[in-house]
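Dear colleague,

Following up on yesterday's call, I've attached the two folding results inline so they're easy to grep. Please treat them as preliminary; we haven't cross-checked anything against experimental data yet. The first protein's sequence and structure tokens come first.
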Amino acid sequence: MSRRRTFDPYTLSGALERERVAYVVIGGFARVVHGSGEVTQGLDVVPSLRDENLRRLARALEELDASQPALAERLAAGDPVTARTRAGELRIVPEPWGTRGYDDLRIRANRENLGRGTRPAVASVVDCIRMLDASEREPDAERLRRLRRMMELERRLVPHRGLGLER
């Protein structure tokens, strides 16, 4: 019987940060950071596909006891890779639905302080919506509806941030 590994996003992102991996957090964890009430048991990331970054990613996976043979080739082929690490599941997605990958997502991503010195780049709410909108999975339709509603409520509740030129 396989024992389920406890999800520890601090350990996962810490290993990626120590190896200086360029990546953006997407998926359920990104939505949770933005205030979604869903529960997630893994971390989904979009890495830069540059050779040196993929070498760093491979070293981080080794540190997490989850080396992935032929990682660069699998990601270059567009295949998502799921690594089962000692800190839970890490899903590496080269090009999420509705995006052009890392360079597309990093433009609007923000570094979010998660505590314990962890500040990963997290996909923007707009990009989270874009990815859900491009998904054809049944559960994503409800997630999309809730995220759009959350964004609409935030627009109504947060005063417009102008340039401060109004008097």
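Below is the second protein, in the same order (sequence, then structure):
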Amino acid sequence: MVGAGPVGMFTALRLAESGIGVQLIDQASCTAGHSYACALHPRTLQLLDEVGIAQDAIKLGHLIETVAFYEGAFQRAELKLSVLPVEFPFVLVLQQNILEDLLEKKLKEKAGIEVRWNHRLADLAMKNGAATATIDELAMEGKGYSVPDFEMAVKKTVSVSADFVVGADGQGSIVRERLGIDYARVGKPPLFVVYEFETKAQLPSEIRIVLDKHMAGVLWPFSQNKGRWSLQWLRPNAPTDFPQKTRSSFTIVDSPGPEDSRHHLQKLLSAHAPWFQAEIKDVGWVKEIQFEHRLARQFGRDRAWLVGDAAHQTGPVGMQSMNMGFRESADLAAKLTKILRDKGSPDLLETYDVEHRMEWEQLLGWKGGPKANATTDEWIRQRSARIPACIPASGMELTLLLRQLGLEFKPARLEKVEAEGAILV
């Protein structure tokens, strides 16, 4: 396993539970101190429950059962997750670094797996029915004389042979690069500015999505008085690279005044979410993030396969990329287990590629978008192509939620949705 984010650690845990030997490496030194994902879909909670983590996560997070859509000062639509016929009919707002800590602890206690931090994949080759990974072990090295300058350097390099390599190593995936798989961009990359804040008033107990003609945004409540705003920002000279997750916790400190982070957030909210009247008490973290809509041409080949952000990326409103990565992880781990333990056909991995690419092509609007009917509200009809990626759900749950808006959405994967429930086939 390459990459010890949430999807990588979950994949390692599923494989280990099936009796598959796993080594998990990550070039970082520890779990993320701050990151951009902050919510778990109903299906993700079901998968976490299968490995014994869901209840611990629920104790640490904030349950949300309603999603509301806004434009200007007005609410335009509402979704009720509470009526979904699933075990966890809600979204759990939980910062990614907390989830990573839970997964790392479970890996140690349940599977006896220690993440090999400070280990970087340097090269990957396929030979004689196996994958050979060249791994660099990294260590801090001081340079200079009177004032040492420390940087990461290669301590030693080893070669490891494995039946399969799983790349969960994010947007800059070395696994994907070594496989020579193109990472196609879909459309123009949107710039978002993300604020984590505290208020003097109580936040609404729902996810609120702003969907104007030219921008999108979302309010995630972390608790009664703390939350996160992610707002699309139409600014020239935007950064072009998706940033790495921050590995240390920190808060921002800027001089109080009309140009500080608190006032900047209030100006954006006045323009795009005038219904938000809560006074901002403090901004603890702010970041500009250039998201991209990208999809790998293949989810892997031969002895190396991709999950999560290594295979795709989209905007932050619906928290789709990480959550769908969990579904990919469960599917890939099950197929690898059949191949390695039950002598299943390697062709199973081709179906993994086809099915998950189809789902992403649909979500990104390449094919098979939602269809309005005669009674669909005109506001929803005009934004029907943009709405699916904004909803914090996927698969069967996404189809059922879109139906609440008067939109029919045929799942790309083999799922049958019934009027009074859902059956996976």
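For the second protein, one point worth flagging: DSSP finds ten helices and 25 strands in the chain.

Best wishes,
A.L.
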